[in-house]
């Protein structure tokens, strides 16, 4: 039996060992470990690759969202300002909103795309709303044009959560370059992952970038002069050096992801599974390959069937944000999120990463087909 891990990060590390060792030597020989030339170079290279003027490396994707919100000045901590965000996402999106001093206001998702629903977004905007943090879930684009239009009409700021969308584009424009700022995570499982935590704020706004740089470094305008109430959230030199080498290979690795996803699409079409696809006009980074079963029971049975065959799957995400214990206090009485709740019961993520072997993909396909009696 061929065991297929959901993700095998060590495979990339082994293939890129010489590059990683070279990056490590550059940093250690220089002896400059924080806010140095590697970070400056990575920020410039990432900004140019994304198509924006500024990039600010920080400690995590969570910090990127929180610092971007703070840097805009859109929210006043403790004032009850609301930031709208989808009900289906990683909880860190909402935690970042809370850490910025705002109240997360959840919006149900579109049942087909599982992205924030523009119609429900419009209805959820209250007089206390100050910003929108849309999420490009699974690397697929939300309806960012509709989100930006809703924000423009109400005078709200858009901060894109592009933490799963490194290299995703709509009409040739990179996700993360539409709002006032785009936020990225370099958590190891991401398409562009560090060997540890990391994040980045991308923007065309020079003043926003300037404030974000201060905020990540304790709010300092110069050494030991703290102009703002900042935090300690700096992407270190070693991670920046490693990310520089990985950024150079990201487009090729994303192409491999798209090739594998296309094979899944072809092989699994016609089954009683709904394949969560990128919207028309979106070139997705294919961060995750997600399918929906007809029920929660069927999803769990499919996962058990694949597990018995040595195939690992995951669920993104098993509990909508409004149902998370820590976030329930922010949900007004009577609000419901039926689309997000149904998706959480039914979705399953299949293995998808550039190092996934052809034989491994075939094993996953055969396992899914056999579950539905099609093998």
Description:
There is one protein chain. The chain is 40% helix and 15% strand. It has helices at residues 9-15, 17-30, 37-50, 61-72, 91-99, 118-124, 144-154, 206-216, 237-247, 250-268, 296-308, 338-346, 358-371, and strands at 54-58, 82-86, 103-107, 129-132, 157-161, 169-170, 173-174, 181-185, 199-203, 220-222, 225-226, 274-275, 282-283, 289-292, 347-350. It folds into two domains: 9-247, Aspartate Aminotransferase, domain 2; 250-371, Aspartate Aminotransferase, domain 1, CATH 3.90.1150. The strands form four sheets. It has a seven-stranded mixed beta sheet with strand order 1-9-8-5-4-2-3, with helices on both faces. The two termini are 16 Å apart. Helix 11 (296-308) packs parallel to helix 12 (338-346). The protein is α/β, with parallel strands linked by helices and 375 residues long. The longest helix has 19 residues, at 250-268. A hairpin with a 2-residue loop joins strand 6 and strand 7. The mean pLDDT is 97.
Notable features of this structure?
375 residues, alpha/beta, Aspartate Aminotransferase, domain 2, Aspartate Aminotransferase, domain 1, 2 domains, seven-stranded mixed β-sheet, three-stranded antiparallel β-sheet, 15 strands, 40% helix, 15% strand, globular
Order of helices and strands: HHHEHEHEHEHEEEEEHEEHHEEEHHEH
Helix content percent band: 40-55%
Judging from the principal axes of the Cα atoms, what is the shape? globular
Q: Round the Cα radius of gyration to an integer and report it.
A: 21 Å
Number of strands: 15
Structural class by helix and strand composition = alpha/beta
Mean pLDDT across the residues is 97
CATH topology of the largest domain: Aspartate Aminotransferase, domain 2
CATH superfamily of the largest domain: Type I PLP-dependent aspartate aminotransferase-like (Major domain)
Under CATH at level 1, the class of the largest domain stands as Alpha Beta
Number of domains: 2
Largest sheet: 7 strands, mixed
Number of helices: 13
Q: Which percent range describes the beta-strand content?
A: 5-15%
The end-to-end span amounts to 16 Å
Q: Order of strands across the biggest sheet? A: 1-9-8-5-4-2-3
């Amino acid at each position: 039996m061929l065991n297929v891990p959901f993700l095998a990060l060590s495979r990339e590390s082994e293939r890129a060992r010489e590059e990683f060792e070279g990056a490590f030597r550059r940093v250690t020989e220089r002896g400059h470990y924080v806010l140095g030339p590697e970070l400056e170079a990575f920020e410039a290279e990432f900004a140019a690759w994304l198509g924006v003027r500024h990039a600010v490396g920080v400690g995590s994707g969570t910090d990127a969202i929180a610092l971007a919100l703070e840097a805009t000045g859109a929210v006043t901590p403790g004032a009850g300002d609301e930031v709208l965000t989808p009900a289906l996402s990683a909880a860190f999106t909402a935690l970042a909103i809370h850490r910025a001093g705002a109240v997360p206001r959840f919006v149900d998702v579109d049942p087909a795309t599982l992205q924030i629903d523009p119609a429900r977004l419009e209805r959820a905007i209250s007089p206390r709303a100050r910003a929108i943090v849309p999420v490009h879930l699974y690397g697929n684009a939300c309806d960012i044009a509709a989100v930006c239009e809703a924000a423009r009409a109400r005078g709200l700021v858009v901060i894109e959560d592009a933490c799963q969308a490194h290299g995703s584009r709509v009409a040739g424009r990179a996700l993360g370059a539409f709002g006032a700022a785009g936020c990225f995570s370099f958590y190891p499982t991401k398409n562009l992952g560090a060997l540890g935590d990391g994040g980045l704020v991308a923007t065309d706004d020079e003043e926003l970038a300037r404030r974000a740089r201060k905020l990540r470094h304790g709010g300092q305008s110069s050494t030991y002069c703290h102009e703002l109430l900042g935090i300690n959230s700096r992407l270190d030199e070693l991670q920046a050096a490693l990310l520089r080498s990985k950024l150079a290979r990201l487009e090729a690795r994303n192409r491999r992801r798209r090739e594998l996803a296309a094979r899944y699409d072809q092989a699994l079409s016609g089954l009683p599974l709904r394949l969560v696809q990128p919207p028309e006009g979106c070139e997705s980074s294919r961060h995750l390959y997600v399918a929906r079963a007809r029920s929660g029971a069927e999803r769990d049975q499919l996962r058990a069937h694949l597990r018995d065959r040595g195939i690992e799957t995951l669920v993104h995400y098993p509990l909508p944000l409004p149902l998370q214990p820590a976030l329930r206090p922010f949900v007004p009485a009577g609000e419901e999120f039926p689309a997000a709740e149904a998706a959480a019961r039914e979705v399953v993520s299949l293995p998808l990463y550039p190092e996934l072997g052809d034989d491994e993909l075939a094993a996953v396909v055969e396992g899914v087909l056999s579950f539905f009696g099609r093998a």
